[in-house]
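re: that chain from earlier
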Amino acid sequence: MSETKTDPVRVLPCAKRVRVYLGGQLVVDTVKASMVWEHAYFPTYYFPVDELRVKLEPTGDTRPANHLGTPVGFDVIADGTVAPGAAVRYLDSPTPELQNLVRLDAKAMDEWFEEDEPIYGHPRDPFHRVDILSSSRHIRVEVAGQTVAESHNPRILFETGLPARYYLPLTDIRLDLLQHSGTRTMCPYKGNAEYWSLKLGEDLYPDLVWIYRTPVPESQKIAGFASFYNEKVDIYVDGVLESRPQSPFS
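^ sequence. v structure.
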């Protein structure tokens, strides 16, 4: 593992079998992947170059150097399917472990698997924890001074680095105020989420509420429950107004 004052990049070898597909073709199938923390939020998979089963064609693009080194871009070519600029190498990286590795753009690939299970968004951080607890605490949610949800049967989700999220039964939410927004997101710890906007009179609050209808097995306790962004609404817990937290979603 590499992590020093002059080299803040953490690199952790991973024993999981990782497979990536593009255009129905296998891009990589390896047990030699590394998790790389390019920033503090979550890791990204990097692969030994000689483990790839596709062609990498240099793009010739010039990209500015960063703390990882000078990024060199490549097109990924899998049996005629091309993902432009979807691979990056850092040949001059100050982190020696990165020099012989390549990063694939998660969104440019079609499917990712750890062992035989799909990866949602990015790899699960081994230092990241999610706990979901049933509770009888009284949760009330206000938007613009109006109560839009109230429950004595929340599921409280505690996730490393994020505020506690209060997941409420749909029957305890003013469903008449919700409008499907069409937004979809993926979380490696919870699965695929869909979103609602909330409409009060003439005011629309976009993507304020989300739900995991079929979460991953570890998060089944929130299946069919919906949550609000604490950062954007007023939440009362047992009658006490919580401060709006600061987070990447503020």
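Confidence is low (pLDDT under 50) at residues 1-7.
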